[in-house]
Amino acid sequence: MWQRFSLDRRGLVPYLAAVVAGCAPRMEPLLPVDAAPVDRAAVMAWSASTTPAGPAVHRFKWLYRDGRQSAGGRGSARVAAPDSVRVDARGPLGQGRSSGVVVGDSILWAEPEDNLIEAAPNVALMWALFGVARAPGPGSTLLGLERADLTAWRIVEGPDTMEYVREPGRGRLRAELRRGGQVVGRTEATLDGEGRLKSARLTVPSVPARLDLTFLSSETPSEPFAPDVWLPDRP
């Protein structure tokens, strides 16, 4: 049902993908060329400004295409501050149901075996689909800049380079992961003037692949989620 990629398991995420037909174009780095070394405190503040402040429920439509198949359906993401999310998805007519929970940079659980959480390249890219930028780990090399129209930063950790560009005026957060100089994935999330998610896209050029989400609604529950939300569904 879901196309799987052989990638580092620490970076596996909810993947609802649409594949780009033909050869993937070369992707230039997101970070502007005038970025410079920046204090860790600045990057922590930039990422914290995207962190969920409370519970939220996002409902969306998803679309998947590749050279062999296509599929679509609906799903939801229940996000709890500061770093927990449960993603549920289903295919046409309610078929192909799957669920999973991510906490921070780790998958807590995912069902069934071919769960969409285990089909995409990186947890940080998953968070970026929901407009959230992950904070740098200890020992990261950091570059960044802040202008009137955008804030951009790069986090280098070993072979991985994560870049974010946030453009408040355009309601857009873009992110990209490179590993060993090759683009693993790129995302773009757009938000409306109230900060509600409108759409998101994940592109995986090596396949090539693309994920498109269209958000139908975003709600803020008045109460925290019940504890059993974070547990697998029982038969």
Task: Give structural notes.
This protein is mostly beta strands and 235 residues long. 7% of the residues lie in helices and 43% in strands. It has a 13-stranded antiparallel sheet with strand order 1-7-8-9-10-11-12-13-2-3-4-5-6, with helices on one face.
List the helices and strands and how they pair.
Elements (H helix, E strand, L loop, with lengths): L35 E2 L2 H9 L7 E10 L4 E11 L3 E7 L7 E6 L2 E6 L11 H7 L11 E6 L4 E7 L2 E8 L4 E8 L2 E10 L5 E8 L4 E11 L16
Main sheet: strand order: 1-7-8-9-10-11-12-13-2-3-4-5-6
CATH class: Mainly Beta
Helix/strand class: mainly beta
Spans of 5+ residues with little confidence (pLDDT < 50)?
1-24
Instruction: Note the main sheet.
Output: 13 strands, antiparallel
Assembly classification: single chain
What is the string of SSEs from the N terminus onward?
EHEEEEEHEEEEEEE
Task: Count the domains.
Answer: 1
Core attributes:
single chain, 235 residues, mainly beta, outer membrane lipoprotein receptor (LolB), chain A, 2 helices, 13 strands, 7% helix, disordered N terminus
Q: Summary?
A:
This protein starts with 35 loop residues before the first strand and ends in a 16-residue tail after the last strand. It is 7% helix and 43% strand. It is built from 2 helices and 13 strands.
